[in-house]
Input
Amino acid sequence: MIPLSLSIAGFLSYQEPVEIDFTSFDLACVTGENGAGKSSLLDAFTWALFGRARKHDESIINLNSSQATVSLVYSYEGNIYKVTRTNPRGNTSQLDLFIRDDSGGKTSWKPLTERTLRETDQKIVEILGLDYESFVNASFFLQGEADQFTQQTPASRKRILSRILGLEVWEEYRSKALLNRRRTESELDRLEGRIAELLAELEEEEDRKNQLLFLEKKLDAATKERAEAEGQLESLQEALASLEEQSQQVDDLVKELQELESQIAQLEEKLAQRTAEGKVYRGILSRAEEIRESFRGWEKAQASLAEWERIAEKYRESEIKRQDPLMQIAAGKARLLQQITSLEARREELKNNLDRVPGLTERLEQAREKIRQSEAEIKIRNDKKGELEIARQRQADARAENPRLFKEMKVLEKRITELEGTEGANCPLCGQELPDAERLALIQSLKEEGKDLGDRYRENQSTLKEADRVVTNLQKEITALSLAENNLRKHQAEADKIENQLQSIEEDQRSWQGTHERVLEELQRTLQEENYAPEARQALELINAKLKEIGYDAAEHDRIRELSSQGIAIQGKKAELDRAEAALKPLNREIDELKGRLKLAKKDRQDRESALEAFRQSLEKARGDAPDTREAEQALLDLKEKENILQREVGAAQQKVAVLEKQKARRGDLENKRGELAGRVKAYRQLEGAFGKDGVPALLIEQALPQIETRTNQILERLSSGGMSVRFITQREYKASSREDKKETLEIQIQDQSGVRDYEMYSGGESFRIDFAIRLALSHILAQRAGARLQTLVIDEGFGSQDTLGRQRLIEAINLVKGDFEKILVITHVDEIKEAFSVQLLVEKTPRGSQVTLV
Output
């Protein structure tokens, strides 16, 4: 942002309209008495852009005016904007925003004003990419606010720095990613609902098919039932007769048949039971030899089980004794392996270290060479500092002598004027009569003396200009060499570290060759020949011999024990075999008897069924003589209606089954869509993290901070004669030891002769120099970034708190960064500061309010 012009009326101390053109200079000093209205110019800037100043509401309106109006024209990123803000007393504020349009060969102002003042304010913030706090921190050093950035909390510093660097766009990206994710999740949720409904419908496939099959069966049954009803109706219609007597005969026969059926069922049930019993007995008898053999084996096992138990007990006692020497042997082997592994690892480590020796040697020589270079640079830097002090002394001498010479020249000029005006009178200096010849000689002498003073004045001016050039060049050279001492310490530390490593490797090699290599060979030989735990090995051999002598066979013991445990089952099977042999013959006779009785009963049932059929036929014939078909007809109609309903239900069920095939295809499409949406949700969530404060913005701040720190230290080098440097801390450990991550912060630490201290430990002139250096560095870095978004620097702070040398260094610091800005304004009432600037904006308090004059 580069200001082109500023118009003020009725604003604070500016009663009548004042217009300032900034296009005719790049660097200027705003000067004037205290209270003249210098700082109000800066309030006009911030009030026009952001509606904020040191005073608020109607208090910004001049007491003799009805409204406050400020109009600012500025250039920003190739465009020219005009913003006019008006605050009428007792009425609502107004804000207008325009952009200059040079198309068509004519210049006009195109309005950008939004519907409301708040929206227009936001539009200005979006154009600048900075809000009020970030703008002031980047471009303005306001009275009492030089420490506005440094006095913030670490979190606020990081937020302000983020705004200054234009990183708020990443929050917009994150918000867009969040909005897109939520939209996509909503769409995914709706899709999941549709898929769930579809799956619920597809889960009904088996039920729908079963329902269709069930309805088809019911329809077949209804069709058959309807056909049978039709046949029965036809039979009724053909013949009905008197049925009383024949009906009684039929009922009697039916009862007899029911009793006979009951007898047959009882016979069949009993026959089935006996037949099943016979089958079981025959199955047992088919395994008779197997059962008897098992029984004989069990009896034999019972006899030998006790002996095997006695042998097993002796074997277990010896086996327990065997574990102790085995454990001693294993422990001895483990100790050997551990020692061998340790020595082999040490040998491998030594080999790797020996492989590193050539590289370490080369690095050591490189470090020593860098030490020599740094020492040479330090000597050059010290020589330059001496030259700088001589040049500064020449500056001070010339600057101190010229005011005296100027005063003496003015005195001589006044004496010459008085002498030239005293012709024919007494001398105005001594009161005595002064002849013309002596008067003219005295005038000539005074002029010659004035010429000598003027020559010395001009010579001093030339000397001062040359000294300024020499001082500037020496300061640049000293600044370029300012890191030599740090580099020397760093390279010396690197060389010491490498020498220690080489010495350690050499000592390890001597130790290995002297002792450890021989020890490793002995241990490997002991392991290979198994010459360890000899007493345990001897004890183990004795125990193994005793176990062999006992002759225990675990498999045979287990077989005998298993066979013995089956005794109850084997005895039960033997008892079943005995019972089967005794019962089978009587059972067979009973079965034969039941079969005969069943055969006679079935023959009787067949005869009675034949007789019943004959009687029924006769009865049907009799009923045919007096038929009554109304009930049969109604039943037939009901069956037909039932059949029609089932036909419609079958059709609907067939449609429900058919639609499932389409739903299956639709399900595949929806699941593919779900996978796509889920992938997009995942991508948007990843973008949220990347665009969030701990993502790309944090990386960009981490990249910018070293530049700000370097530039701050360059400026602070001048302001403190190399006595202070700044370090920014961006991460801290959490107090809770359970947390492995680090806390994001932006703390400021200062290195001076006393060591490292936090910024908050400084006060007065020192803290102002730190604030000044950091603020200049922030503005410089911002101006150097892509697009040069802010190219204006305004300083209204702090010169009065500095001594003469401190002021001179502040001016040098301003000159150091002036090439980075299109416009720099320095506000002061200190004469020494004013004299350092060729262009001045003089602010004066008049009865018509504050006025500004370009000097």
Notes: The chain has a mean pLDDT of 80.
